[in-house]
From TrEMBL:
Source superkingdom: Bacteria
GO biological process, alphabetically ordered: L-valine catabolic process
Any one GO MF annotation of this record: NAD binding
UniProt-recorded name of the protein: 3-hydroxyisobutyrate dehydrogenase
SUPFAM superfamilies: 6-phosphogluconate dehydrogenase C-terminal domain-like, NAD(P)-binding Rossmann-fold domains
Name of a matching Pfam family: NAD_binding_11
Enzyme class: oxidoreductase
Amino acid sequence: MARIAFIGLGNMGGPMAANLVKAGHDVLGFDLAAPVLKAAEQSGVKPASHASQAVKDAEIVISMLPQGRHVLTAWTDILQTAAQDTLVIDCSTIDVESSRKAHEMAKAASCLSLDAPVSGGTGGASAGTLTFMAGGSAEAFAKAKPILEAMGKKIVHCGEAGAGQAAKICNNMILGISMIGVCEGFVLAEKLGLSHQALFDVASTSSGQCWAINSYCPVPGPVPTSPANNGYKPGFAAALMLKDLRLSQEAALASGASTPLGAEAAQLFALFEKLGNGGRDFSAIIEMFREKA
Ligand code: NAD
């Protein structure tokens, strides 16, 4: 079993660290927020008074932080203390540029590194069923895989440094666009007097099918587990979808990719958030289209 330092024990990091403890690892944790650190202690994470205390003697360090700037700050501290050959894994969703910079910092400190953002949300973090999309060397991936398996059910090596972040933002851009498309389909169906169930029965088994309709239908009824049946309680909060769409647009701009629907989706989710919906599930955006109509 490994000695692991876990930096950032919030909504995602807390349950992920708890699953590492359950798998028998020795987990030292650090978070800037004292109540968050205290909550992690309840699940068997040993609290550290600062990041370097957690990292000292760790074989593996995992970070799960809000944005690129937090990761670069934390990794600066981590890499000052980490022994050579320590594997440092960032599971946060951040911009590809910061991710690649973090890999370079790790290389300069003679540490192994992996970007390994996740999909599956807080439910997947608690259940240990996350999907990890990883970027980094084959050596770093091989060393990380058994550790990530304690927190997830699918671990994909996407390529070199930053490839995990690239896969995450491309996937979530597709999701943001497809959810808007599905919502528009249901709003049009309502105007045409077509029932939700009838549209679902047809589209979910024909060429309109996609995850946004088949597994996460934005109207109550057809898919009983979707947030639409639960007052649009997240699930996946609209603010996080907006964050990922913005990251996709930054990456599109930097790389010269043309993503007009991604840009439109980012604008629509920005408006939805501005209207006070950032904390609701992202599929609630259907209400904005109904109101617009
Ligand atoms: P969160 O805000 O609940 O947790 C982040 C934690 O990091 C906070 O507790 C904060 O105090 C801590 N922190 C910030 N800077 C720090 C530092 N320098 N050292 C130590 N601790 C520090 O956020 P979250 O929902 O857990 O999300 C974490 C990451 O996971 C984000 O990048 C997010 O985009 C991604 N993500 C979230 C979800 C989700 O459903 N919540 C799903 C997939 C991916």
